[in-house]
Design a protein that fits this description.
Adenoviral Proteinase, Chain
Length: 224
């Protein structure tokens, strides 16, 4: 998921939307916010960046189960939830933990900032109302929640999905995603899927199941 999020962040057209300036967080942000530990200084530095945006997009994970999107909309002072399965019957504990941590670090960052440095008139996000933006389930399978979350991040304007999409669009997106990542200029080992160089043909094929490819903000690097 993070590979595509970094590609979205690289597209500057997605930074400014109808709802204002957007910050697209990776999947590590929520757990970091929920944990008040040794990385607090780094998180406060990141929170200062949050203050300069109108909307914060956080992928939220229900461990081993499901992904959905939370948008902290500072202009509307609303927590917007985009869940491909529609409104949830559980209490979204993982989201509550993220919001509590976010408020904590926004407050810490604000103490080091002047009033002119923040776009936020109110950062008591734990008091903001929640809004379920997807009124009924649009996911029709059991394995596309992460892909839906990525498209929510790409298409949510702050007020609506533009364009709207359905399960068949996500199925198509699944097929395109690998090509998008391989063709991205962030990819430092740029080759088309399935292609091999002459050097590759001269080497034993030792890419096993234990090797995979990770992409980060500096590009793609193989990880054993």
């Amino acid at each position: 998921m993070n590979a595509y999020i970094y590609c979205l962040n690289d597209d500057k057209r997605l930074n400014i939307r109808a709802g204002g300036r957007a910050f697209l967080a990776d999947t590590f942000a929520g757990p970091f916010l929920s944990y008040k530990g040794s990385n607090s200084e780094w998180i406060v530095t990141r929170a200062k960046q949050y203050h300069k945006h109108d909307m914060l997009f956080f992928p939220i994970n229900i461990p081993h189960t499901h992904w959905y999107l939370c948008v902290i909309n500072a202009r509307l002072r609303t927590i917007q939830i985009l869940d491909s399965l529609g409104p949830s019957n559980n209490d979204r504990l993982e989201l509550k933990q993220t919001i509590r941590g976010l408020e904590h670090y926004l407050d810490m960052a604000a103490h080091d900032m002047g009033p002119q440095e923040t776009k936020w008139k109110d950062y008591r996000v734990t008091t903001w109302p929640w809004s379920e933006e997807v009124k009924s389930a649009i996911q029709k399978d059991t394995g596309s929640c992460g892909l839906f979350t990525l498209k929510f991040m790409e298409c949510w304007t702050g007020f609506a999905l533009r364009p709207k999409f359905a399960q068949q669009d996500i199925d198509h997106f699944r097929l395109k995603l690998a090509v998008i990542l391989v063709n991205s200029h962030l990819n430092k080992i740029k080759e088309s899927p399935g292609s091999r160089s002459k050097e590759d043909d001269a080497k034993p094929d030792n890419l096993g199941e234990d090797q995979h490819v990770d992409i980060d903000s500096d590009g793609i690097t193989p990880t054993l």
